[in-house]
Amino acid sequence: MNDDTLLQVRDLRIAFRVDKKNTVEAVKGVSFDVPRNSTVALVGESGSGKSVSSLAVMGLLPPETTIVQPGSSARFDGRELLGLPVAERRQLCGKDIAMIFQEPMSSLNPVFTVGYQIGEVLRRHMGMNGKAARARTLELLAEVGIPDPALKIDAYPSQMSGGQQQRVMIAMAIACEPKLLIADEPTTALDVTIQKQIMELIARLQEKHRMAVLFITHDLGLVAEIADRVIVMRHGEVREEGDATQVFGAPRDAYTRALLHCRPKLDERPLRLPVIDDYIDGRLAPDAVLPQRTRGTGPDDTPLLVVKHLAKSFWLREGLFRKREFQAVRDVSFTLARGKTLGVVGESGSGKTTVGLTLLRLHRATGGSALFDGQDLLAMSDREYAAYKRRIQIIFQNPYASLNPRFTVGQILLEPMRIHRIGANDAERVATAHHLLKRVGLPEGAFHRYPHEFSGGQRQRIAIARCLTMQPEILVCDESVSALDVSVQAQVLNLLQDLQDEYGMSYIFISHDLSVVKYIADQVMVMQQGRVVELADSDALYRNPQHEYTRSLLAAIPRGV
User: What pLDDT is stored for residue 561 in this prediction?
Assistant: First the structure.
């Protein structure tokens, strides 16, 4: 281990106990270095072993189910971490090594203020008293760009936006000025503008504090902008390692080349997005020219849903007797044509999800109309709307939360058909369920399995199959691919496109990923603070955005690849 190397991982092998007899090997002989004052990116899909490797360094893997194979080594600043006593590891990993996790609300304690939680790090590791810890906490909140630190220090995590929560996590991580910062997918669920701010913040803090950063992600566009070195992992093994310019400019491994080609690009719109196996199996050459799809709306399109002056307000309690109106959606109007896709983009809090939920009457509209085949969905009684429920469905963002864990996949698919009396009998419904599972690319045996037995991408396919049982005409996709790896994302987008081509379905596609929206949408609606600031065909909007806010969103897209 030379003086320039801060973290040295050698032949790391980690397995997990599945039951008393069986184990599964998650990391298979991984080796890499993190030099001082540099940024190294670990890149790969879910299940590649990248997060497990970082958790092993931090000592956060569950000891009762984890097997670290003999010969594995992780040395930090010359000191072996694996097998280190708990007390020593805790002191080291709180002070010299820090970690930012993907989901801040899973890491921040909801019952303590953010000031208390940052101060706890300072009290435990730096020995500061309460007054000194509070003063340093205010400095840290200001350093990470939290507005009004004197007010926010006493706020609870739930009172802050997702971007602010992530900034609090960063403040906690840098509180003791660590030598190594591990960032595990810290921007995956954030809007492009907030993502850009967080990445610039990490880069600025790295330069100021002379930290090394181990950045874990599946977003290659992001990696190309920040990393000095890149390590590509798959199935627990390192497939390629090198300088970022070499890995992205001339990748040697077929898997790396496949990852680079799977993500939707702003300047291309292939009929079908390529997936990993297309390149691994040699079905597509890296320089293959793919047939392109045209998008847009025209005067001959048949309007299916006409929304006029849609409004939705929430009432927030202030004190015992007062309430304040918060206008989440203000005067939103658009037309969705049959067989077309409307993309809805904007930052968190822009109102885009509220629009979708209000159209499905999961929120009660406070104004406007939504004419579906000439009938106003928002003015109907619950009894009248029951007949329309099956015609407009939604795919939620989180497939882990939207499927009942106590139901088998078969029960999940059969339930809506029974409620809406689709099919003459259960035998016919079971046959429909099997057909839909095959249609979304799942094996017939999935019918008898539970959601926890499937990956995130497979669960999203189950959610899509459940929607299809209703034979809907409109499908609202609420961030339905944002948490998926690029290859799984490509598979789901291809599936949605196939279904639209086959059944003529219309989509309202809500997303903060502008590259994905450019690929799938015929028309794009940009929202800011509850209002529509721009609405145009996708090619025209991306080519010549008219509103300053749209231009700022497009400018924030990572363009490293």
Answer: 52
